Every structure is written in C-alpha cells, then in structure tokens.
C-alpha cells in the first residue's frame, strides 16, 4: 500500500453527518492556506532576494495543492477540476504562488536551483586567480639571483598549466635576458666537458621556458627574429655521452622541435640559414634513441617543406650526407627494432623520393633491409608505416614516375 494511501482516503471520505461536520484536516489546511498567503505577501514585499521568493512560492504552491485535494470535501463533492479552478479564483495569492513555483522549476537557473554548483564555480575561479598570481610572483623571482633556481624549476613545471606563460615571459622586463644569461653561463663547461647534473638541470629548466615561448603562436616569430635558437647550437654540437650532456642536447632539440612542428615556412627558412641539418645529422648518428627521434623529427619536418626538400637535394653533398646517416640508422634498427625511429626513417626516404634527382639516387642506395622482409614483424601492427614503405618501393621501381 502506498505510504500516503490512508491519508488520501481520509481526505476523500464523505462526512458521516452528510456534510454538516467539516473535515478537521481540511480546517487545518484552510488555516495553513491563510498562513501561506501571508508568507507569500511578506516575501514579495522584500523584492530583493529571488531565491527566498522562489522558496516561499514553492511552499505556497504545495499548500495550494493540498487545498485543491481537500476542496471537494469542504464543498460537499462535485467536479474536482471545477473545485480547483474555484480555489485558484478565490485565493489569488495561491494562484500567484503556483505560477511562481512553476516558473522557478522551469527557468533553468542552475545557480539558483543548485547553489552548490555556483559555489564550486566561484572556488575554481578563486583558485585560478591564485595560480595566476603565483605565476607572476615566480616570474618576478627570476630577476632575483638568490631565488632564480627555484623559480626556474617551479615555472618549468607549470608551463603546461598556464597557456599565456609565453606572453608573460616575453613581455616581462628583463626575463628573456635572464634566460639567455642562464644559457651563456654554461658555455665554459662545454669544452672541456665539465657540466654536472645540478647545473644541467638548471639550464634545462631555462630551456624548457624558451620552448614554451617557441611554441606559442604569438611569440614564435618574435623568438625567431631575435635569433634565440642560435644560443642553443653550442649545446647541440657537444659529443659527450654523459647524462648531463645528453639531457642538455635533448632539451635543446625540444626547443627546435617546438618551432618546426607547426609547419611554418618562415621557421624552415630560418633553420636552413643556420645550418641546423648537420647538427641534427650528428645526433641522429651518435645520440641516444630519444635524442635521435627528436633530431630526425626535425629533419623530417624540414624535408616536408618544399624549400627544405629543394635545399637538401640541391647538391650531391647535402643529399649524400642525409642519405648516409639514414642508411646508418637503418643498419642500427636491424638490431634495435626501434619502431619510433623506423617510422621517421621511412617517411624521410619517402619524402626524398618525391625529388627526381634524389629518387634516381635512391634506386641505387636504398638499404636492403627496407626492400626485403626484415622489418615485417615490427611493422605488422602499423598499417600507416607499411603503406609508406610500400609507396616508397613503388616510387623507386623503374619507370613508375616521370
């Protein structure tokens, strides 16, 4: 049985005396209706608190609903819809309250109906404001030599959380000069190689902030026009295989990688004028797997640009330098089976095959492991790279392209 069924039956039962004795619960509800009328008028008079008005309207509507249910009893029966209409006509406050409650329920005002959501939004805004203030404080601390090392570390950790950090770094007075000072201060430790882990970590944090500036659309061109990438080339030119130097080269490559990943022709032209390719080729040949991956990614991006492809294939010496390093990498991959590197190697060869002179040369010097089934197992789950390799072999087949 429904929990309110007895209550419902009590409201609906006829008077034992044929309508002479009023239902006691109806009298209580009638009294409550008068109270609701006064309550609604009191909250309406306030006028300034919408949430309280809606709450009062909801209470009045509930009372009006109960009055509607007991109206046939006090009226001695009849059409319940007519009784409800009569109740609304005789009690304007109840009608207004019911309309206000309906509007409150259908208005879609989430912040009023669910105030905790509004509070949560305000908390999030406050936290974002505190984070932004923390960023500004850390940027100012870069100007203080005694606080700079920790500020570099903290900002490098937050560079992915604050999207406008690049703008703050670039336009804050003295900050870019401080970052360049951090880089230049390491030069004496490159030859002879005396760079230690602590110093390497510190300069790499500065490089991470430069990468943030290089990656931002509004500061990338300014970064190039200031020729800041040139300050990184001494790091790329090192050959020491110790961990501090490897970390330094990898982070420096990350800055160049951030520049080329957006396929900007201006970036490619700048890099070609600075002889970045020989530096990347050396790392592709002798660096760690991760450094090789970033270096060949940069070379691949240069090749994908028409100017870059023309530059590399313009002379035999440039093409031979690139093809020789790629050939060495293929021989190394036969042993290591590093799928990430192999993808980039195949795509570099495929792009070179788009140039007629390079295509003719590749027909003679393409490594044999790319022609046979040496890498079939490692590429079995990589359909895209298999298609690239297949297209490369088609391009190099005699008479396939004019």
Q: Helices, strands, pairings?
A:
Elements: H1 5-12, H2 24-46, H3 50-74, H4 80-90, H5 92-106, H6 110-113, H7 115-141, H8 148-158, H9 165-171, H10 175-184, H11 197-215, H12 220-225, H13 233-236, H14 243-260, H15 265-273, H16 276-286, H17 289-304, H18 306-313, H19 316-336, H20 339-352, H21 356-365, H22 383-396
Protein name: Cell differentiation protein rcd1
GO cellular component, one term: CCR4-NOT complex
InterPro entries: ARM-like, ARM-type_fold, CNOT9
Q: Indicate the overall shape.
A: elongated
Q: Calculate Rg over CA atoms.
A: 38 Å
Q: What percent of residues are in strands?
A: under 5%
Q: According to CATH, what is the topology of the largest domain?
A: Leucine-rich Repeat Variant
Number of helices: 22
The CATH homologous superfamily of the largest domain is called Leucine-rich Repeat Variant
- Helix-strand pattern: HHHHHHHHHHHHHHHHHHHHHH
End-to-end gap = 88 Å
**Portion in helices:** over 70%
How many strands, which pairing sense, and closed or not: the largest β-sheet? none
Look at the structure and give the mean pLDDT: 80
> Helix/strand/pairing class, anyone?
mainly alpha
CATH level 1 name of the largest domain: Mainly Alpha
| Low-pLDDT residue intervals, each spanning 5 or more residues | 1-29, 31-49, 70-84
Work out the count of structural domains. 3
* CATH structural architecture of the largest domain: Alpha Horseshoe
Protein name: Cell differentiation protein rcd1
InterPro entries: ARM-like, ARM-type_fold, CNOT9
Family: Belongs to the CNOT9 family.
């Amino acid at each position: 049985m429904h929990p309110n069924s007895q209550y419902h039956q009590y409201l609906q039962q006829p008077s034992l005396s044929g309508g002479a004795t009023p239902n006691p619960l109806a009298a209580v509800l009638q009294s409550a209706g008068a109270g609701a009328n006064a309550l609604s008028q009191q909250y309406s008079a306030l006028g300034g608190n919408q949430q309280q008005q809606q709450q009062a309207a909801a209470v009045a509507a509930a009372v009006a609903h109960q009055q509607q249910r007991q109206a046939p009893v006090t009226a001695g029966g009849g059409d319940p819809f007519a009784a409800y209409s009569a109740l609304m006509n005789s009690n304007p406050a109840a009608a207004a309250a019911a309309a206000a409650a309906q509007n409150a329920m259908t208005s879609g005002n989430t912040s009023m109906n669910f105030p905790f959501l509004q509070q949560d939004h305000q908390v999030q805004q406050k936290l974002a404001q505190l984070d932004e203030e923390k960023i500004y404080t850390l940027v100012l601390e870069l100007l203080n030599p005694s606080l700079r090392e920790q500020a570099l570390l903290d900002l490098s950790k937050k560079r992915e959380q604050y999207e406008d950090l690049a703008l703050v770094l670039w336009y804050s007075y003295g900050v870019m000069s401080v970052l360049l000072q951090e880089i230049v201060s390491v030069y004496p430790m490159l030859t002879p190689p005396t760079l230690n882990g602590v110093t390497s970590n510190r300069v790499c944090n500065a490089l991470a902030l430069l990468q943030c500036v290089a990656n931002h659309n509004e500061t990338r061109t300014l970064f190039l026009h200031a020729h800041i990438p040139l300050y990184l080339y001494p790091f790329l030119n090192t050959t020491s295989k110790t961990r501090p130097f490897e970390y330094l080269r990898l982070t420096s490559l990350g800055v160049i990688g951030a520049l080329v990943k957006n396929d900007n022709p201006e970036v490619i032209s700048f890099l070609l004028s600075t002889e970045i390719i020989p530096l990347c080729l050396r790392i592709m040949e002798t660096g760690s797997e991760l450094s090789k991956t970033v270096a060949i990614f940069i070379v691949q991006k240069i090749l994908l640009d028409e100017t870059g492809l023309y530059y590399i294939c313009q002379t035999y010496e440039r093409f031979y330098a690139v093809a020789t390093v790629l050939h060495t990498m293929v021989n190394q991959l036969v042993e290591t089976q590093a799928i990430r590197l192999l993808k980039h190697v195949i795509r570099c060869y495929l792009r070179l095959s788009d140039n007629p002179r390079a295509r003719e040369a590749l027909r003679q010097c393409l490594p044999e492991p790319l022609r046979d089934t040496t890498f079939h197992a490692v590429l079995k789950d990589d359909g895209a790279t298999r298609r690239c390799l297949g297209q490369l072999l088609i391009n190099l087949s005699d008479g396939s392209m004019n």
